[in-house]
Design brief:
Elements: H1 10-16, E1 17-20, E2 23-26, E3 41-42, E4 48-50, E5 55-56, H2 57-66, E6 74-77, E7 90-93, H3 95-100, E8 108-111, E9 116-123, E10 126-133, H4 136-150
Antiparallel strand pairs: 1-2, 3-4, 4-5, 6-7, 8-9, 9-10
Helix pairs in contact: 1-2
């Protein structure tokens, strides 16, 4: 079972929760429901989970607005902030595109033999050598320039 198949339908979501400013809130009082704060909690991975921790809030919000997550796609935070679940910050992407949007990769390392900084980027599964540089700043800039050129995520219309 794929992760997008286990989520409730748009109708089921709208029965229980409402969307306000990037977060989900309970619609009605009930056992264990706190009406004065957003639904769910932040888990160890840094994402907010809802529905007794079973669902990722950003995926639920995407379904709330667009009806379903397109088959084979994941929901990505455009700005890389796992807690910014405003609908304007969410998009459907492939797994590969989701990995391209990671902010943690620095894209360079020190090469002891030639005593230079090497910049590199993975494109379509192949490691691309971007050159060797005398400083970390130059190596990082080469990485960022290549990332802007090769890691382009195509905008796709949500399934409605």
């Amino acid at each position: 079972m794929k992760y997008y198949e286990k989520y409730p339908t748009q109708g089921e979501i709208k029965e229980v929760w409402e969307y306000k400013k990037g977060q989900l809130w309970w619609k009605e009082r009930g056992r264990g429901r706190r009406m004065n704060r957003p639904v769910g909690s932040v888990c160890t991975t840094g994402y907010r989970r809802v529905g007794t921790g079973r669902f990722l809030e950003h995926a639920i919000i995407y379904i709330y607005h667009y009806g379903k997550i397109p088959k084979g796609l994941e929901i990505d935070h455009i700005d890389g902030d796992k807690l910014n679940n405003k609908i304007i910050n969410l998009r459907s992407v492939t797994k590969k595109e989701n990995h391209m949007n990671r902010k943690t990769a620095k894209g360079y390392c020190f090469h002891k033999k030639n005593r230079k900084w090497l910049a590199m980027l993975r494109v379509d599964g192949e490691l691309m050598n971007l050159g060797s540089f005398s400083t970390t700043v130059k190596a990082r800039q080469a990485y960022l320039n290549a990332k802007a050129k090769y890691h382009i995520i195509k905008d796709r219309k949500p399934c409605v």
